[in-house]
């Protein structure tokens, strides 16, 4: 097993969690939420697969001040980063390239 590779893919997963926190405005673990919502990743996964459901988990404080396509592209990136199998996760280089492609969408 290549330990360095394992750490890199773990970092990608961690980045996916941080990006999900940014999209939702929630913490990764929030013991003050209902039981089914305590673990952010577990709670959010079903919403990340459906464009119509995605809006339900977006941070309310953003008040629709974001393009839906940009939010959807970010959600797709989160899904890739949070793959159960680390071999299916993107490299950080791929993450950066995706973010660079999302930026013009968000900037308008």
UniProtKB/TrEMBL annotation:
SUPFAM superfamilies: Protein kinase-like (PK-like). InterPro entries: Kinase-like_dom_sf, Plant_Ser_Thr_Prot_Kinase, Prot_kinase_dom, Ser-Thr/Tyr_kinase_cat_dom. GO terms for cellular component: plasma membrane. It comes from the Eukaryota. Residues 1-106 form the Protein kinase domain. One of its GO terms (molecular function) is ATP binding. It holds the Pfam family PK_Tyr_Ser-Thr. Its main location: membrane. Keywords: Cell membrane, Kinase, Membrane, Transferase. It is found in: Cell membrane. The keyword Kinase applies. The keyword Zinc does not apply. This is Serine/threonine-protein kinase. It comes from Morus notabilis.
């Amino acid at each position: 097993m290549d330990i360095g590779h394992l750490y890199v893919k773990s970092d990608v997963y961690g980045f996916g969690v941080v990006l999900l926190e940014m999209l939702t405005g929630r913490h990764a673990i929030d013991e003050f939420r209902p039981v089914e919502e305590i673990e952010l990743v577990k709670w959010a996964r079903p919403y990340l697969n459906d464009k119509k459901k995605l809006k339900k988990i977006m941070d309310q404080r953003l008040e629709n001040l974001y393009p839906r396509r940009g939010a959807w592209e970010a959600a797709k990136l989160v899904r890739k980063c949070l793959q159960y199998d680390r071999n299916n996760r993107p490299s950080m280089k791929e993450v950066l390239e995706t973010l660079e492609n999302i930026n013009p969408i968000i900037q308008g």
